Amino acid sequence: MIDEFFLKTLFTGICVGIECGLIGVFIFLLNIPFVGVAIAHSAMAGGIWGFIFNIPTKFSAFLLSLISSFFIGPVTDKAKVNPNITISIIFSAVMGFAFLGIGILKGKNEMVLNFLWGNILLVNFLDIVLILLTLILEIIVIVIFYRQYMAILFNREIAASLGINEKVFYYLIFFIIGIVVSINLDIIGGLMLFSLIITPPAIAYHITFELKKFFILSGVFGASGTAGGIILAFLFNLPVSASVVLFTTFVFIMVLVFSPKRRKYGES
pTM surpassing 0.85? Predict the structure, then answer.
């Protein structure tokens, strides 16, 4: 008989994998891979300071990650710089904020390690509900505003010329990234989170040119990569996060070697 504990972990991992795979398409096509790290550290800083001020850490992590995600888009547009520059500045600021909190905590770093590695094995009912609600939100946004995002991901200026309020949709991407990161950070940890945001869309990129298939494949590879890593972890008594990251990376290497696009179009 299959263990319920294993099934709960597997179900959670699959949902998180789909969630990260979908939002990863935006991050990949907008060429802002560092945004996941920046917002993850914002959430970590929020959690640390929430602990210091006796505020629920999930709420404080969620709040600061959303504040950071709101800043990235508008500050980038205002400063007229590459988004990665703005993201790097925000990352530096929240890192300083986080380390200041760590210094105040004076060695109480168990929570910090939880943000880095997570603990999907201890996921509770509320966590699963929040993950499912976030996944539903992502799917609704992608389905309803698919045409707008297809134009924006191609070129923001062209999207604006077509009458699309591209700034609103562009900022909405960062808002959803902030939700995804803050909800999942203490569940799966920063290492696994960053891997699931970046690697599945990178795999999908080597298979298809179509945006619709890109979203679907990225979600599928996010789910299958997570499931494969969790199964290996349970079979061989390995750390879940590391197993998921390594398994997903292995899938990427295999797809890269046998890429249909490379064989057909000779891409390097």
Answer: yes
